[in-house]
Model the fold of this input.
Amino acid sequence: MERIYLDHAATTPLDARVLEKMQPYFCEVFGNPDSPHAFGRRAVAAVDAARDEVASLLGAKPNEIFFTSGGTESDNWALRGAAHALADRGRHVVVSAVEHAAVLEAAALLEGEGFSVSRAPVDAEGAVDVEQFSRLLRPDTVLAAVMAANNEVGTVQPLGEISALCRERGIVLFCDAVQAAGALPLGVNAPHVDLLSISAHKFYGPKGAGALYVRAGIRLGKLIAGGHQERGLRGGTTNVAGAVGLAEALRIACAEREQNAARLRALRDGFCAEIARNLGGVHRNGAQNGLPGLANLRFDGVDGEALLYSLDLAGVAASAGAACSSGSPEPSHVLLAMGLAASEARSCVRFSFGRGNTAQDAARAAAAVCACVERLRGRAPRPYAG
Ligand code: PLP
Done:
């Protein structure tokens, strides 16, 4: 049985072109980029080139890009580093209710450290309600965090309006673009954001490599104390191959974005249409025009976890939502924030298509979903040919 991977929002395979670009930086060019000798100089040249590439793709300057270990670190650093650096101006932070756990948990830590945190509600599609967001802003609000696109339902956030509100009030805006990078047009200037996080493994780059954009002039405290790496703000020997891989993966993802997005949208829509044709009681969560390859579906009368297990047995890999919350008995905070009842939120599965998927995968996966759902609903199973 050939397995079908429909969990690209959790992680993507490394692109062979990215691996090729990274290869020399494991054994051949192994120097520590902080070493002043020739070995170090070769390594630092690769890191500098990667930084230039990432900066140019984001519309930033190279000294505004900091390499990190991934999205979680970037998110924690942005939120905690900025809040602490801004604490002399105020101690109120607003985060959207549908942020990734990396942001929500960092916000919870801030609360423990004496900050006040408001969670901005979202509408039924998972988009931040701009009106309500603006009402949460106070004279002591110093920082806001709103993601570019949601990892569970794919909804794209109204960042333009949020950015305008923040700029009027001098509030620093942090955007978690971990899911959006490579999938949607990306940049730090339109809309204007002050901090932005990305993670290579979401766009066919290596795991454990990320970046944080920090606009020049924005104050940011240290998250990781140590050596003087990353302009003295993030100690630790730079992951040279990771930085090279991140830059190459982002370059390819941006260059091929439109063509890939059109393909993924067609696969996703064909998959959803096929399911809708064969099954009743199926609802799509989130905005229809969200992340191109992602569909979060609710199946009436079906337990999402049970469906995931049956799909896995049928050779289809999907997810209950955030990969890091799989296995957790709690229903998704994103779906609850969108107004779903806990029982409804437990009946949802996220399917996320990627570059390697074909129309045949979409058709086979749709047939598997229909067969598994019917079986779980207790109806006579239709033969599923695999
Ligand atoms: N932010 C979002 C929106 C994500 O989807 C993820 C990963 O699922 C992260 C942050 C964390 O990224 P990483 O896995 O690189 O730590």
